[in-house]
Structure formats: structure tokens, C-alpha cells
Amino acid sequence: MRLATFNVENMFDRAKALNGANWAEGRPALEAHKELNTLFGKARYSAADKARMLKLFENHGLLKSDEGPLLLLRKIRGQLIKRPRVGDAEIVATGRKSWVGWVELKTEPVNEAATLNTARVLGAVDADVQAVIEAEDRTTLRLFNQQLLPEVDAKPFQHVMLVDGNDDRGIDVGLLTRQKYPIVSIRSHVDDADASGTIFSRDCAEYEISLPGNKRLWVMVNHLKSKGYGSQTANDAKRKRQARRIRTIYDEHLAAGETLVAVVGDLNEIPANDPLAPLLRQNSSLRDIASHPTYESGGREGTHGNCGPSAKLDYILLSPELYACVTAAGIERRGMWGGVHGTLWAHFAEVSNADEAASDHAALWVELDL
After folding, report:
1. Residue 294 DSSP SS3
2. Where are the domains of the chain?
3. Is residue 153 left, alpha or beta, with left meaning phi > 0 and alpha meaning psi from -120 to 50?
4. Of the candidates 262, 281, 222, which has an alpha carbon nearest to the alpha carbon of residue 367?
5. Cβ atoms within 10 A of the Cβ of 261, count?
6. DSSP assignment, residue 335?
7. Orientation angle between helical segments 47-59 and 23-40, nearest 10 degrees
8. Confidence at residue 20, expressed as pLDDT on a 0 to 100 scale
9. Rounded distance, CA 164 to CA 29, Å?
10. pLDDT of residue 10
């Protein structure tokens, strides 16, 4: 059986703020999106709250219109802002109960060639159990599977599942499997919380996969807090809370007698850093496939961007019994661009420039003799 993970960075539509040349370009809009929706949620708006809303509206092109370059004000009922033809705009809502609405991130279509190259990556990996990170929703994933994979001569999967998580940008985690490996149960952890609040930025979706011979495999698909915006200290703390919770869930599986457990996805952190200590150290029995003697790295440690050592963000971590079943493992970078001129590694002939790359992430795969 082949197990794989790939951050597809959306299939058809993606938030424009996530599509810049670098994180810094979209970061102000992402932060404003979060701050405005937090302010909107207050029971009563103070003068300072209203002033801050107006300032953020001004900064992001929403002072005169509901639609800015990267943000969109969605109003369902009531009135938030008054925009007179003469004079200054004014926040007229008194609090959350006086209007219904929110700010959302504007989206734009993903480059068509990039979408097809995403399909080519999945076809090249040809997994039996394929985790996907940053997929829009189940409908999109199902249509991508049915329509795009055959277009590049790749085999569609028989089972497609995605549970919407906590991120409203359309970057959820999902799973596709072959006929022999049906998904028999799903556990979502979107509501998991600790003393600091909600734990998972997206979800830690658990999928129970039926294997031949009455065996079962548990795949925990994750996308941890990004480094893209917010303070590094807060981001690190969030990822460590997420790693601790994943470790607890993993340990509970082992305690229940489940020996075939995998933790996969984009963990947004390099191995040596503290946030991943609960998964990679601290008496953890999880093993990284990158440590297996059969793992083919292509001469680079990383999985993102230019794939240097500081860009190892994607993982397949296996329980001891599962790790003992590994017969081969590797990385698929041909859907990535690679450097300014695309010269760092070979890629598909259809990737002729950076905009046509399937993703900034590589796909990881592991072959298991089960």
C-alpha cells in the first residue's frame, strides 16, 4: 500500500491574499481579516472599536465600497457602516446584535495549468491512500478527482472525504483512497480546546481505513498553524499546543491496541524546533519516513520552496509497527518550480514557469508492506 501527503494549495480557487509572491505581500490583509471579524463579534462596539474598524477599512479599500482589493465586506442583515456622499464614513452598528455580516477574503481562480499540474503530481505519486492539505471543500475535491485526474491520464480515487475545519479561507484537510481501502470512520477535532482556547487551526482529522486481512490503519491528517502572520512567539506556542494534542490522540490509539497509526500533513515547522518536540522527541515513538534507509530525498532535505534544510515542513510520521513495514519512501518535486529560474530540480514539461507550478510544496510518499 502506498500512503502519501500533498499540500495542493487549493485546486480551483484560492484567497488572493495567499497568492502573493511572498507571505509579506498578503500578511496585512490576512491580519485585518482576523482582527475585523474579532471586532465584529463584540457584544458592544466602543468608540475605539469603531475607530479601529474605520482605520482597517481605509487601509484595505473598504471605506467607500464593500469590496477592496483583497477583502470583501459581506452584509446579511442590518447596517454596519454609513458612507455619505459628503463627509466621513461612520460605523453605525452598536454591536453584534445590531447587524449580521463579516469580512471575507476575496478569491481568484487558480492558474489552469497549475491545477492540471496538481493532478499530475497526484497521478505520479499514485497513492492508495492520499492526504491532501489546503483543499477548498469536499465538493471541489470530488469534482477535481472525477474531472481533472482523468484529463492527465491519472486514476481517480473511489473514496473522497473532507470535513470543513476551523479556517474560513478554504484550506482544509482531506483524504482520497482506492477501492481496496475504504474509509470506515472519521473523527474530527475542530472543537478540541485547552485553557488557551481552540487548538486546531484547521483540524486533526482522523480517518480509519479498512485494510485487507481485517486490519485497520488510522491516518491523522494535519495542517498546523502557519508562520505567515502573527507573532513568531504566538505561532510557535500554537503549533506546540497542536503537536501536544496530536501526540495525546496518537498515544490513545496505541493504548487502545491500535498499532498502525500515521500522522501526516503540513506541520509548518522544521524537525529540530521546539513546537514539534511532542511528536519527534519527548519519548515519542513516531518515526519520520525521512529517517528510513530507503527514503529518496533527491539530494535536498526540505519539502517547501527551494527545499533547503529550513524548509522541511511536510511529514509522514509512522508508529513503530507501521515504520517496520516500510519498503520504500520518497518525495515528488516535479510539480514545483525550484529556484528563480526553475533549475534546482527536474519538473514536469508542463511546468514552464513559477505560476504553473502545482504547489510550493512537494508530495511525500511511503510504500508499506501490510
Report:
1. coil
2. 2-14+109-368, 23-107
3. left
4. 262
5. 25
6. T
7. 150
8. 67
9. 22
10. 67
The residue type of 172 is D
Q: Could you tell me if 313 and 134 are in contact, meaning their C-beta atoms sit under 8 angstroms apart? A: no
Q: Could you give the CA distance from residue 153 to residue 350 in angstroms, rounded to a whole number?
A: 14
283 HSE (CA, 13 A, CB side) = 2
- The beta strand positions in 84-214, using DSSP E, are 90-91, 99-105, 107-109, 129-135, 159-162, 172-177, 183-187, 193-194, 197-198, 204-211
* C-alpha cell recorded at residue 118: 496538481
* Contact predicate 103/39, CB 8 Å: no
pTM of the model: 0.80
State how beta strands 90-91 and 81-82 pair: antiparallel
CATH class of 2-14+109-368: alpha beta
Q: Considering only CA atoms, which of 369, 204, 227 is closest in space to residue 279?
A: 204
Distances, alpha carbon 291 to alpha carbons 16, 222, 248, 280, 314, in Å: 36, 20, 23, 11, 14
Contacts of 214 (CB under 8 A, 6+ apart): none
| DSSP conformation letters of 189-246 | -TT-EETTEE--SS-EEEEEEEETTTEEEEEEEEEPPPSSSS-HHHHHHHHHHHHHHH
Distance of CA 186 to the CA centre of its chain: 18
Q: Which residue has the cell 515542513?
A: 313
Answer yes or no: are the C-beta atoms of 263 and 64 closer than 8 Å: no
Amino acid at 340: V
Q: Give per-10-residue mean pLDDT for the chain (370 aa).
A: 92 69 76 90 94 95 90 89 91 92 79 89 98 90 90 95 85 95 96 96 96 95 86 92 98 97 97 97 97 96 95 98 98 95 94 92 97
| CA-based radius of gyration for the chain | 22
Model pLDDT, residue 12: 62
Structure-block grid coordinates of residue 23? 507571505
Residues 6+ apart with CB under 8 A from 317: 262, 263, 264, 279, 280, 286, 287, 288, 289
